[in-house]
Amino acid sequence: MALTDVMLPAGSRVVLIVSSGPDEGERSEAMMPQVLGLAQGNALQAVQEAGLRSRTRYDYSTATRKGAVGTQYPEAGTKLPWGSDVLVLVSSGEPVNERPPKELPQVAGLCLDEARSILKTAGFLPDVLEVPSSEVPADIVITQTPNETAAVYQPKKSTMWVWVLIILLALVIAVVGFLVAEQKGRAVKENTTSQAIERVVLPEWSV
User: Which residues contact 177 (CB under 8 A, 6 or more apart)?
Assistant: First the structure.
C-alpha cells in the first residue's frame, strides 16, 4: 500500500522498520513464509520452521478476523538471514468503540527517536522492528507498516470534477451546434433571396 495520505483509526499500532546497520556475520538464508490469514499459532509455527523469529504484535482490525494474521513484514518469499526477526501482526477484532480515522504521519528517513515522538503526538502506537541494512545507517527508519485496516479508511477520490468537465463539454458542443445551424440557416435564406431577385423580369415599356 502506498503511504500517501494514509488514514488509520486513532490509537492504531504502526510498526517502524528500522535499520540495525550492516549484518556483520555471514548467515545462511531463510525465506519468509506466507502467513496472512493464518491463525496465530499456525503462523508462528510456519515462521519458526522457516528459521526466523516472530515479533508478534496485536492490533484492532476491521478487515481480518480476530486471532488471524492481517499484516506481515516482510512479504512472503523475501530472503532474509537465518534467525532474523519478522513482524506478525495479529487481529484483536474490531474496535469496541469506533475511533475516528486520522492521517498517518510519514516518518521514513527520520531517526528512531524523532519518528516515535511524531507518531505518539499524532495519536498512534509506534513499535519497532530492527532489520540489518548495508544501505541505511543504524537507527534510521527504513519504512513504516500500518495494518491492513488502513485500506478501509482511505478517502474516496471524488469524481465530481469529471462530471463538471462532461457537462461543460456538452454545453460547448450544444452552443457550437446551435451557432453552426444558425449560420447555415442565414446562408440558405440569403441564397434564396438572391435567386428570387435574379428572376425578376422588368416589363418592356413602349415609347
Answer: none
